[in-house]
Design a protein that fits this description.
The complex is a heterotrimer of chains A (164), B (177) and C (651). Helices cover 51% and strands 0% of the residues of chain A. Chain A has 164 residues and is mostly helical. Among the domains of chain A are: 37-109, Cytochrome C biogenesis protein (Helicase, Ruva Protein, domain 3, Orthogonal Bundle); 117-155, no CATH class. Chain B has one domain (34-176): 3-Layer(aba) Sandwich (Glutaredoxin), CATH 3.40.30.10. Helix content of chain B is 41%, strand content 19%. Chain B has a 5-stranded mixed β-sheet with strand order 5-4-3-6-7. Chain B has a two-stranded antiparallel ribbon with strand order 1-2. Chain B starts with a helix and ends with a helix. In chain C, α8 runs antiparallel to α9 (190-221) and α8 (156-185) crosses α11 (261-284). In chain C, the strands form 2 sheets. In chain C, strands 2, 3, 4, 5, 6 and 7 form a 6-stranded antiparallel β-sheet that branches. Chain C has a 4-stranded antiparallel β-sheet with strand order 1-10-9-8. Chain C has helices at residues 2-19, 22-26, 28-51, 58-63, 70-76, 81-102, 108-132, 156-185, 190-221, 232-257, 261-284, 297-321, 336-366, 376-396, 407-413, 417-432, 437-461, 470-476, 479-504, 608-625, 628-631; strands at 506-512, 517-520, 523-534, 538-549, 552-557, 560-564, 570-573, 575-578, 582-591, 597-605. The longest helix of chain C has 32 residues, at 190-221. Chain C contains 21 helices and 10 strands. The chains are: A mainly alpha (164), B alpha/beta (177), C alpha+beta (651). Chains A and C meet through α1 and α5 of A and α13, α14, α15, α16 and α17 of C.
């Protein structure tokens, strides 16, 4: 059995590589002719990254980055100004929570009330693994009568041979 | 052996209790973290007289209400008669308005048309003061005490019931102190 | 009327099974048909009301408009809460009748129980509809015109997304009914698993489609290029999917080896419970979501009561009957069974984590501990971390032998797969321009899955002794195996798409007037003009943007900024040029005072692999479910013994 033409495969691989190179173009983008929508694109990018972590209180189910609401635009502007003044991300987030509470953060802060939230998944995982290990070990020790009798191995002809 | 099989049921019932309690709550309401904290400092021109400047320091020593409103806000129309009646009745605390993200002529025109219950209104066209006060939906009303601390925030239009049941008792209590 | 029939369908077959009365049990099937007929009639009436613009029906007036195009008038039938419930009911009846038709080879008692359980579920929904959510309420006097369907919903994707989702949710009710019936009858064995599997896989396929479609639709329709937001309602559909996936795998073990019976039954109950809970979350107003229907605490209370009764009773039954079910055949610590157990455990933990994050704000608020939000930053981190071990196990599980295997032998067989995967991952990142550790990890896992499946496939078709015809051996592979292979590759494709897009997507916001152009990644975007366009029920500013690369025309894209006349909210229609390697995504922002427009241009590499992965998963599921052994009819005797399957051979 041969693969469908090597040429076809080669073409496909080349197309994939091209796709990746295009993705790489991110670092090689030339200067745009149309002016950037914002005066300072780097600042803008930082602002949008932060805005993506904040909840819009008006529509409540969008980030401040995506929302078209008046308050969202005001807050984006506020973040822009604070970043331009050189304030840190921490300070800006604190600014927001002082005025709007923790509700405005999409990444819940780590405090006494949210310990369970952040630690929960890990605890669940540990608990699950632990239970698994205990149950499996216990089963190994049970006598054969606890189990159904083994069928004559109903293994399919396609199963790899046991001896390797 | 039996007990561990009841865990799913137990977990589910706990969940159901929370869901039941949740039915009574409003997930969209955002309580203010500013209640119990000093009101943010402001310095704003008056809506009617641009040369006059209103500052927080001038408000110290008295209990007062700050009502956030705008001419483009429909719900503010609904609550306005309540505020007008309150100020006309007298014997209450001064109500100051925060004209939020509005144009001067529109704001003044609105007050001329629907009545002016405010001792004065701060003019906040950019909404900066609003942001400082955590305003996210107009109308909102704050009760601020003599020391300049925010004691209560009401989100949404002030109805006669809210005035009667929540705000007036609080004002009475603050004025006694 | 449908309610009356459903009550009969619910009560009689179950009672009949209990008492052993053949005539009562036989009523199950005809009653199911009757219920279907009645609900369908109801549904048709509602549809006609929409098509004919009957604004004297309150529900029609709230969700439609005289200018609404015909296809969307159909979609509007399930655009609101009441109509969507009717759709739920219709789906439930369709599945019930399907079970009635395809269950000839099952023992009558069992069928009676299944249909009975399904009937009871229908009773719950019918009661709910009739008491709190009647779509046929009149508006008198009739409205002059309707409030129009939410513009977000006026899109082809919206027409099929809810029905597909509901097919999935409701489909899990079949697995649930099978599980309850088995618990009631006390016969839970490999044969039961074999009957249940295709139904469950079918439901899973629909749910995969519904969720994938929803994501693709949001991407195209919402205008900002996002495709998953961990919104509570999205999570409500994802959790049954996770549990459903665990259920399919658990059923595989129960069918093959008789093990995991208790797990399987519990998973079936949980999957459907999560479906029901999703229904609750969307309609009760307990959580804030873009998807939420207009809410009414009274409805919420009703659903909650239904939830407590249905799930509570099922879990009590489970706790009572599960000990009688037995442990199945023995397996070693390292075996396919234990691998699948780990798989299920990981899926369960993932589901638990999503549930925790979704409901946590509610927990805190209910206890007066303040209000927080739990959004993508939390879920992306937590879920990503949990998925990593799962993806890794996906490379090992299929390779492991049943009953007993040696870690050493496994490691030996896979010794090339992992290094190859890592090397490929680093290579891809390097070509793409940036080597980020997380991305390498994600890509490694995706390639690892493909590599390990490849090793397994090779082992099975490699010439052995006299048998040198590889092609023949390939054709002999059971369809269920191919299905698994394909589905797992679908997951790998999905993971690949996610890793590439999240790491390498770029965007740029520019101000564009006529003839302005900008460049992104070698593509040049030139704005030709912006003109006003009138749609059936909207007015739009439509940009004409020419996309070229090296001078060659790639596409003409027409993003729009629409204002729907009735509800007057502005909507951004993005324009997308899609191919296997990348999406070019353009959306219009605000118009500036000088007439120029703010335009956002995005380059998203390999994003279609995300939905392609979903489609591949569905194909895999279909292949697995249509394996010969399910389709062959067998004459069955009463069956509590564990007879190895007569026809088709096992896999």
């Amino acid at each position: 059995m041969t693969f469908t033409s090597h040429r076809g495969l080669g073409r496909a691989l080349r197309a994939m590589a091209l796709g990746l190179v295009l993705a790489a173009g991110a670092n090689l983008a030339l200067a745009a002719d149309a002016p950037s929508a914002s005066a300072n694109p780097e600042l803008e990018a930082r602002m949008m990254a932060m805005a993506a972590e904040l909840r819009c209180l008006v529509c409540q189910n969008q980030t401040i980055a995506d929302s078209h609401a008046g308050l969202a635009e005001d807050l984006r502007q506020q973040i822009r100004e604070m970043l331009a003044k050189g304030q840190s991300e921490r300070e800006i987030m604190d600014y927001m929570t002082q005025r709007y509470g923790d509700f405005v953060l999409y990444r819940p802060p780590f405090k006494a009330t949210t310990v369970l939230l952040w630690v929960g998944p890990a605890v669940l995982m540990v608990f699950a693994i632990g239970t698994l290990v205990v149950v499996l070990r216990r089963r190994q020790k049970l006598g054969d009568d606890a189990f159904d009798p083994d069928d004559a191995e109903a293994s399919s002809p396609a199963e790899p041979p046991a001896a390797r | 052996m039996k007990a561990k099989l009841l865990w799913p049921l137990a977990i589910f019932l706990v969940l159901a209790v929370f869901l039941g309690v949740g039915l009574k709550l409003d997930p969209r309401e955002v309580p203010s973290p500013l209640v119990g904290k000093p009101a943010p400092v402001f310095k704003a021109p008056s809506l009617a007289q641009p040369e006059k400047v209103l500052r927080k320091e001038d408000m110290l020593g008295k209990v007062w209400m700050l009502n956030v409103w705008a001419s483009w806000c429909g719900a503010c129309r609904d609550e306005h008669p309540v505020l007008v009646a309150y100020s006309r009745a007298g014997g209450g605390v001064p109500v100051y308005g925060l004209n939020y993200k509005d144009k001067r002529e529109d704001g003044m025109g609105w007050l001329n048309q629907f009545g002016n219950p405010y001792a004065d209104s701060l003019f906040d066209p950019d909404g900066r003061i609003g942001i400082d006060y955590g305003v996210y939906g107009v109308p909102e009303t704050f009760v601020i005490d003599q020391a300049g601390v925010i004691r209560y925030k009401h989100i949404g239009p002030v109805t006669p019931e809210v005035l009667r049941n929540k705000i007036e008792p609080l004002l009475k209590q603050l004025n006694k102190a | 009327m449908a309610l009356g029939v459903a009550l009969l369908q619910g009560a009689l077959p179950l009672a009949g099974a209990h008492k052993g009365r053949a005539d009562w049990m036989q009523l199950g099937r005809p009653l199911a048909w009757a219920q279907l007929a009645l609900v369908t009639a109801s549904f048709i009436c509602l549809t006609l009301a929409f098509v004919r613009h009957d604004f004297s029906v309150l529900y029609v007036a709230s969700n439609s408009n005289s200018a609404l195009p015909l296809p969307y008038r159909f979609a509007a039938v399930w655009g609101g809460h009441e109509g969507s419930l009717l759709l739920w009911l219709l789906m439930l009846n369709v599945w019930t009748v399907a079970v009635a038709i395809y269950s000839r080879s099952l023992p009558a008692v069992f069928v009676a129980r299944i249909l009975g359980v399904l009937g009871l579920v229908a009773v719950g929904f019918l009661l709910f509809t009739l008491i709190t959510s009647n779509p046929f309420e009149r508006l008198i006097p009739a409205a002059a015109d309707g409030r129009d369907l939410n513009p977000l919903l006026q899109d082809p994707g919206m027409v099929i997304h809810p029905p597909m989702l509901y097919m999935g949710y409701v489909g899990f009710s079949v697995a649930y009914a099978f599980a309850i019936a088995a618990l009631l009858g006390g016969n839970l064995d490999a044969t039961w698993a074999r009957w249940t599997r295709p139904w469950t896989t079918a439901a899973w396929i629909f749910l995969t489609f519904g969720i994938g479609l929803g994501s693709w639709w949001a991407y195209n329709e919402l205008g900002w290029g996002g495709w998953w937001f961990w919104d509570p309602v999205e999570n409500a559909s994802f959790m049954p999917w996770l549990v459903g996936t665990a259920l399919i795998h658990s059923l595989a073990v129960t069918e093959k080896r008789g093990s995991f019976k208790v797990w399987t039954v519990l998973l079936a109950i949980v999957a459907f419970s999560l479906s029901l809970m999703g229904t609750f979350l969307v309609r009760s107003g307990v959580l804030s979501s873009v998807h939420a229907f207009a809410t009414d605490p009274r409805r919420g209370l009703f659903i909650l009561a239904f939830l407590v009764i249905a799930i509570g009773a099922s879990l009590v039954l489970y706790a009572w009957r599960a000990p009688t079910v037995g442990l199945g055949q023995r397996f070693a610590l390292v075996s396919k069974e234990s691998m699948l157990l780990v798989n299920n455990m990981l899926l369960a933990v993932a589901t638990g984590a999503v549930l925790l994050g979704t409901l946590y704000p509610l927990f805190l608020d209910a206890m007066g501990l303040g209000k927080i939000s739990v959004g993508p930053p939390y879920f992306d981190t937590v879920f990503g971390l949990l998925m990593a071990p799962l993806l890794f196990m996906m490379g090992i599980g299929p390779m492991t032998r049943w009953k007993n295997d040696e870690p050493g032998s496994l490691a030996r067989r896979l010794r090339w797969a992992l290094p190859v995967a890592v090397v490929l991952a680093v290579l891809v990142c390097w070509i793409a321009g940036r080597i980020a550790p997380l991305t390498v990890a994600g890509l490694t896992l995706a390639f690892w899955i493909v590599a390990s499946q490849g090793v397994d496939l090779l082992e099975r078709v490699r010439p052995r002794g006299q048998d040198t015809n590889v092609l023949a051996r390939l054709r002999l592979l059971p369809r269920a195996y191919i299905g698994m292979l394909v589905a797992h590759i679908g997951v790998a494709a999905f993971a690949f798409g996610v890793a590439m897009v999240k790491t390498y997507e770029i965007e740029r916001d520019v101000k564009m007037g006529p003839d302005a152009s900008t460049e992104l990644n070698g593509y040049r975007f030139r704005m030709l003009s912006v003109r006003e366009v009138q749609g059936a029920n909207y007015t739009a500013a439509q940009g004409q943007i020419e996309v070229t690369k090296d001078g060659k025309l790639i596409a003409m894209l027409s993003p729009e900024k629409r204002v729907y006349r009735v509800q007057s909210n502005p909507m951004t229609e993005a324009a997308v040029d899609s191919n296997l390697l990348r999406d070019l995504y353009i959306s219009m922002g605000e118009q500036l005072p000088n007439g120029d427009w703010i335009v956002r241009v995005q380059h998203k590499p390999f994003i279609v692999w995300i939905w392609g992965g979903c489609l591949i998963m569905m194909l895999g599921g279909f292949l697995a479910a249509s394996d010969r052994r399910y389709r062959l009819r067998q004459t069955r005797q009463a069956t509590s013994t564990d007879t190895p399957t007569a026809a088709g051979g096992a896999a």
